[in-house]
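Usage

Read records sequentially. Each one opens with the input sequence:
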Amino acid sequence: MKQEFYTLGAFEYVADVQIIRAKLESEGIPVFLRDEYTLNTDPLISSAIGGVKLQVYTRDKERATAIYDDMRNYAQDARGNPIVCPNCKAQRSEAYYSRKKLLHKLFPFLEPVKYRCLNCEMITKPSQP
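and closes with the structure output:
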C-alpha cells in the first residue's frame, strides 16, 4: 500500500524542528524530515532548497496539524502583541517572504517582512506603530 505524505511546515535549520518532531512522535505520529541529512552536511544551502520539511503520513494530518498549531510561535509586533489579520481578525500570522525580485533571491535578508494569516491566507504588511 502506497503511503502519501503531508508537509506540515518547512524550517530553516534542522535544530528548529526537533521540539515539534519530539512532540509528534510522543503522540504516536511518525515524523519524516525531508532534506535533513543534506542540511546537516551543508546548512548554508537551506534557503536554496527550502529548508528541512516536516512531513507526516496523510492519515495523521489532522491530529498532527492540531498539535503543531498548539505549539507554534505566531508573529508578534515590536511590543510583543500578536499580529491581527485585518481581513478575518485572527491572531495566527507568520512571517512571509515572497522572494520574487532577483535582489531578494540573492539577498533574502533585504526583503521587508510581510505577514501571512494562517486562517484566511491574506498577506499584509506590518502596521506602523
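Summary fields computed downstream for this record:
- DSSP finds five helices and six strands in the chain.
- The chain has two domains: 5-71, 73-129.
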